[in-house]
Amino acid sequence: MDPARHFQVLIVGGGSGGLSVASRLSKKLRHNQVGVIEPSDKHYYQPLWTLVGGGAVNINSTVRSEAAVMPRGAEWIRDAVTEFDPEKNSVRTKAGRTYTYDFLVVAAGISVDWDKVKGLAGNVGREGICSNYSFEYAPTTWRTIQSFKGGDAIFTHPATPIKCGGAPQKIMYLADDAFRQRGVRDKTNIHFYIGDPAIFKVEKYAKALLEVVARKGLQVHYRHNLTELHLDKHVAVFQDLARDREIVQHWDMIHVTPPMSPPPFIKSSPFANEAGWFNVDKNTLRHPKWHNVYALGDCSSLPTSKTGAAIRKQAPIVAANLLAHIRGDQPTALYDGYTSCPLVTGYGKLILAEFDYDLKPKETFPFDQSKERKSMYLLKKHVLPVLYWKGMLKGRA
Ligand code: FAD
After folding, report:
1. Rounded distance, CA 19 to CA 61, Å?
2. Distance from CA of residue 134 to its chain's centroid?
3. 321 Cα to the center of ligand 1, angstroms
4. How much distance in Å is there from the Cα of 110 to the middle of ligand 1?
5. How far apart are the CA of 149 and the centre of ligand 1, in A?
6. CA of 233 to the centre of ligand 1 (A)
7. Closest ligand 1 atom to the C-alpha of 339?
8. Which long-range CB contacts under 8 A does 283-289 form with residues at least 24 apart?
9. Rg over CA atoms, the chain
């Protein structure tokens, strides 16, 4: 058996959270003291998938090779973690290797459970079914919207935590615009089935979104969770959570946001909380029992909306607290739950929601961000991707 490799800091996941922390730490620590375990040779900028589905952005602009974005000074291990052993400060991988660490940072994302809706797995891109929730499928959404000739257009938001809570409805607003441009909107019924009891968690933005829904003539069904797709008849089955019954809905096109859950290797680990998320203190981002262990991003227990924007604020906190620990100091950097959701409400229109753990708006700009603005749409489409590739991933923003 190979001897275990040791890193001062071992990072699990080379996505948004893992690489944002890796770049910050690799600038401060000796060369090759930071290891990043990441199975994929591709790195994605997922927030643009909404605009890919809306036909406004090319999918190829959302991907880079993992090697190209790996920070200099960090070592990429192309493998996947299968087990954690916090008593031995070690992890096991799919390739059967063991890695040990002084500090562990986990940012392994969220599992997208395509197989938890009967009839969904393997059928995206056919029979009017589409989804923005993967690199492979996002282009199917635009193909579906473009070839739609009218009828029932359905959009779903599951009753589980998801990444980017606004994404399931943003694509509906773009589709509504696209249908109007193509002259098919007046022969179309648009329905939004959402597991939550409200359109958005923060009242200020919910109010603005309900005005958009009313203006566009969309039908919203709260507390409904998609469970099954019958491809032969184009009929979707939803659980009506409030009345504990099933209802059926015909579709001509259906955009599905699948249920999501903690990655199984985290759920079954000693680090998980009761719900299966990687348990960390909501302010220091450190595990409550194993103090040399941190987590951030979608896989974490942080009770805020799961977004890349949240990670932009979490990564500096993890880096600062971990470096303080190395110096023998206490972790004093505290995360306030900041997250942001750029709510695209049409082509050239966006409400920029920004808020904290208390669901209080925490806005960047000196104007009312609950108003739809073209400037904010341009920010999402052109500025935020550059900030991501050149700023956040490089540990600069
Ligand atoms: P990821 O970036 O998903 O990275 C997780 C990494 O862990 C992956 O590279 C994966 O391969 C790796 N991994 C998985 N299992 C293992 C393992 N066993 N061992 C090692 N590595 C593993 N955010 C916004 O801020 N604004 C938006 O407008 C926005 N819109 C979105 C729209 C869509 C359609 C989607 C899908 C997402 C959107 N997001 C948005 C959310 C944002 O992309 C995520 O919240 C963010 O990427 C999460 O970062 P992460 O590091 O936690 O996970």
Report:
1. 19
2. 11
3. 23
4. 7
5. 33
6. 34
7. 25
8. 283/334, 283/335, 283/336, 284/317, 284/321, 284/331, 284/333, 284/334, 284/335, 285/314, 285/317, 285/318, 285/321, 285/335, 286/321, 286/331, 289/86
9. 21
- Atom from ligand 1 closest to the CA of residue 311: 49
Is the whole-model pTM more than 0.85?
Answer: yes
Ligand 1, atom 2: closest residue by C-alpha: 15
If you take atom 19 of ligand 1, which residue's CA is the nearest one?
Answer: 80
H helices of the chain, in order, are: 16-28, 49-53, 66-69, 138-147, 167-182, 203-216, 264-267, 308-327, 374-378, 384-386
Per-residue confidence of the chain (397 residues) as pLDDT tens digits? 568 899 999 999 999 999 999 999 999 998 889 999 999 999 999 999 999 999 999 999 999 999 999 999 999 999 999 999 999 999 999 999 999 999 999 999 999 999 999 999 999 999 999 999 999 999 999 999 999 999 999 999 999 999 999 999 999 999 999 999 999 999 999 999 999 999 999 999 999 999 999 999 999 999 999 999 999 999 999 999 999 999 999 999 999 999 999 999 999 999 999 999 999 999 999 999 999 999 999 999 999 999 999 999 999 999 999 999 999 999 999 999 999 999 999 999 999 999 999 999 999 999 999 999 999 999 999 999 999 999 999 998 7
**Catalytically annotated residues:** 164, 341
DSSP for residue 288: S
Give me 367's structure tokens. Answer: 């104007």
Report which ligand 1 atom has the smallest distance to the Cα of 49.
34
From first CA to last CA, the distance across the chain in angstroms is: 42
DSSP class per residue in 207-230: HHHHHHHHHHT-EEEESEEEEEEE
The residues lining ligand 1, judged by C-beta closer than 6 Å to any ligand atom, are 12-18, 37-40, 46-47, 49-50, 80-81, 107-109, 132-133, 163-164, 167, 263, 265, 297-299, 306-309, 311, 342
Structure tokens at 295: 């987590």
Q: What is the position in ligand 1's atom list of the atom closest to the CA of 134? A: 36
Query: Quick one: angle between helices 308-327 and 16-28, nearest 10?
Result: 30
Do the beta carbons of residue 288 and residue 193 sit within 8 Å?
Answer: no
Q: How far is the CA of 298 from the centre of ligand 1 (A)?
A: 7
Among 164, 314, 345, 351, the mutation site with the greatest number of ligand 1 atoms within 8 A of its Cβ is 164
